[in-house]
Amino acid sequence: MIMLHSFRKPLADLPVANASNTTYGWSSENWSGYALTSDTQGTYTSISGTWVVPEVSVPASPNPNSEDNFWTWIADIFDGDGLTQSSSSYSATWIGIDGFTNSQLIQTGTAQNIVDGQAQYFAWWEILPNPETQLSTSQYPVSPGDEMQAQIAQQADGTWSIILTDMTQNWTFTENGIEYTGPQTSAEWIEEAPALNGAITTLANYGSISFESTQTNNQNPEFTLYDAGVMIQNGQWISTPSQPNANGNGFIIGYGSSIPPAPTTN
């Protein structure tokens, strides 16, 4: 079992603008998507959203045409033990509460990886600092094109529940009575390059992902582009969100630096 972890690297200077003067509110080395934040503890008590599991492919290796790119290329090819890593890349699609400005996080989602050249898909949940719990692929199978629906909510007794449903393959995973004591000061809908053995992995080429029907505290989050963030590694934009849809409760994230069009559905 591959134990991947979610964590977030520090923000770049704000705001972050691209060549077409589209301004995003934040950037990260391993997160892209939308996030809401608050200075008040206990603000976010639930989060939900839907997405379609993407089909992943191995990203092209950078061309070592400069000293910086050369060492990036070497790092992508070899790990600390001299083992090739060029055939492995990873991506995680998830919703969560906390983690944006602190080290605590409750989250659930799907993984879309290329491991030793082979595609790998599975569902999972995680509460930092504990490692992720991967769901059984025989009981809870995940395939490209599956429509996923996820919800995380605090219960009346203070515990939490996670519900993850594959509406295409007609299964639902539920975990109740979860003890979680994070500050509840952020809510996120994210595409991530997760961590493996303490290092950020190479992001798998996931194409694009559309988050729809998003809610927090059972309400429309009413996104603005300033809630969005791009993934930037070695000065390169590698995962980029769109403008929110007209309802403010949906968006698309695209692999690479191009800005996807905003979705027309909710």
From TrEMBL:
Annotated GO molecular function terms are: glutamic-type endopeptidase activity
Q: Which CDD domains match?
A: Peptidase_G1 (cd13426)
Q: Name one GO biological process term.
A: proteolysis
The record, for InterPro entries, names:
ConA-like_dom_sf, Peptidase_G1, Peptidase_G1_sf
What SUPFAM superfamilies has UniProt attached to this entry? Concanavalin A-like lectins/glucanases (SSF49899)
Specify the domain of life of the species encoding this protein.
Bacteria
The record's annotation in Gene3D superfamilies points to: Peptidase G1
> Where does the record place the catalytic residues?
E192
Q: What is this protein called?
A: Peptidase A4 family protein
Q: Which organism is it from?
A: Sulfoacidibacillus ferrooxidans
